[in-house]
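Duplicate of #3305? Posting structure anyway:
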């Protein structure tokens, strides 16, 4: 299956689209304003020691000095003496660092307000499956990998890559990873760390030794070992940066890079821009005439399948089965495209045949097999729902691109015109009882104002007779449907 990466770069945003067989499969978005410095490695200079706080301020070249606490200085770093390496309980900051000393540190927390960045000397370098630990000599395995057999398999595969440079932590995402994938990750991280060491040796003053990779570089790092045919970048500057990165760390991808100079925007290729817009819709049309309804909530994501206009050619059971099978492929695509994670509940159309239910589960498993994110399908529940989970790796595309609706305040619905009209009438009654007024003016949205002058006019007239005062209605074009004001005159 042909695969291609499209990288769209602007000064404010970078977007990456994965195209497989001409169809959009994944979208990654990073906004420049939200990029922090967590993960960056610096050669800094200790500018001040605070014995009372057991901490030091380190100048790493930022506007504010960064903060390093004694508890964040680990024994295997070069700033701790050989004697101290044998005494893990030593925590006197004055013995650990001295003013004017150069020290290699990593940012663990971005600067906030008047506070500088938080630092550690416990350097780690992450990749897709592994985390490299300079100076360590062992292999750790994520506690979230529960299978003892899988833990032992992964540990046996990674242990040979430990040497004098350091050891590794095997990440949760490595569950099921192949020997080749792990080897490529280990090799990438070692090349990265050697580059950090080279820069540290060459640098004579404070400097950046490693900047947390931008989106384009991270994606290429994660796609090492996958079958990519082409990588198109629409920015000459980004293309040069990516090319330099691949030459140093992932040379197998260098020949696949292309600087895109076409007349049309790069995301107009393969209808990518429109596909991203459609990925924000609740309703997903199926080719047969059926459709999915996808609702993302804080607790879980629910997916409902409907036959819609699909009537089939044989009988109802066959129609339902075919719709469900088609839905499995659409669901797998939407989960990747929207990057939906956590608990996912799928409400397939009810099937009487146990064989059909099993084949639907098999079809879903097969459709999800190309997903790079770990999924787990628990099968049908007693209520006929399919429970599954998908590992959360980043924010969903909806959470990145969208915010709460200011009209409905995130409810997803607005009050009907009729409901708002009755609220207006109750508010007039309440205000009339509480205050003295000669008459009232109601400011409301055009739809509500029209209703009060039209189909609800009799209710308003009765209220005027009841309170013995005139009520004037005025439309405010800028008001939302739920918004209104009752003003005393």
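Output from current build:
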């Amino acid at each position: 299956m042909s695969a291609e990466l499209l990288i769209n770069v602007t000064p404010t945003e970078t977007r990456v689209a994965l195209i497989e067989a001409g169809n959009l499969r994944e979208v990654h978005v990073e906004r420049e304003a939200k990029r922090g410095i967590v993960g960056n490695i610096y050669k800094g200079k200790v500018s001040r020691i605070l014995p009372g706080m057991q901490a030091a301020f380190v100048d790493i070249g930022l506007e504010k000095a960064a903060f390093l606490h004694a508890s964040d200085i680990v024994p295997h770093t070069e700033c701790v003496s050989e004697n101290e390496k044998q005494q893990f309980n030593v925590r006197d900051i004055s013995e650990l660092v001295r003013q004017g000393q150069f020290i290699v540190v990593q940012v663990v927390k971005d600067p906030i307000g008047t506070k500088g960045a938080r630092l550690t000397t416990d350097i780690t370098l992450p990749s897709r499956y592994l985390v490299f630990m300079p100076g360590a000599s062992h292999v750790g395995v994520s506690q979230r990998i529960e299978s003892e057999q899988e833990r032992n398999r992964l540990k046996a595969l990674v242990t040979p890559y430990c040497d004098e440079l350091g050891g590794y932590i095997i990440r949760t995402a490595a569950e099921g990873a192949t020997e080749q994938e792990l080897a490529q990750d280990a090799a990438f991280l070692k090349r990265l760390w050697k580059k950090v060491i080279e820069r540290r040796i060459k640098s004579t003053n404070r400097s950046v030794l490693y900047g947390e990779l931008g989106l384009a570089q991270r994606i290429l790092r994660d796609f090492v070992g996958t079958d990519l045919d082409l990588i198109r970048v629409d920015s000459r500057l980004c293309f040069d940066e990516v090319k330099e990165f691949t030459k140093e760390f992932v040379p197998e991808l260098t020949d696949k890079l292309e600087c895109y100079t076409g007349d049309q925007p790069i995301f107009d290729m393969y209808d990518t821009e429109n596909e991203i817009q459609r990925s924000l819709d609740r309703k997903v049309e199926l080719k047969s005439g059926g459709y999915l309804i996808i609702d993302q909530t804080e607790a879980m994501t629910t997916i409902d399948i409907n036959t819609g206009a699909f009537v089939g050619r044989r009988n109802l059971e066959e129609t339902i089965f075919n719709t469900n099978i088609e839905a499995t492929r659409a669901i797998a695509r939407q989960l990747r495209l929207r990057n939906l994670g956590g608990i996912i509940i799928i409400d397939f159309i009810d099937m009487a045949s146990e064989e059909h239910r099993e084949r639907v589960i098999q079809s879903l498993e097969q459709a999800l097999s190309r997903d790079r994110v770990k999924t787990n399908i628990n099968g049908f529940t007693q209520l006929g729902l399919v429970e599954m989970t998908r590992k959360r790796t980043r924010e969903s595309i909806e959470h990145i691109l969208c915010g709460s609706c200011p009209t409905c305040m995130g409810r997803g619905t607005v009050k009907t015109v009729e409901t708002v009209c009755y609220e207006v009438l109750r508010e007039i009654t309440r205000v009339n009882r509480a205050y003295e007024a000669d008459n009232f003016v109601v400011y409301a949205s055009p739809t509500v104002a029209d209703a009060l002058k039209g189909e609800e006019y009799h209710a308003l007239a009765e209220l005027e007779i009841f309170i013995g005062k005139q009520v004037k209605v005025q439309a405010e074009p800028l008001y939302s449907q739920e918004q209104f004001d009752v003003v005393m005159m």
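Confirmed duplicate; merging threads. The first helix runs from residue 82 to 85. The radius of gyration is 30 Å.
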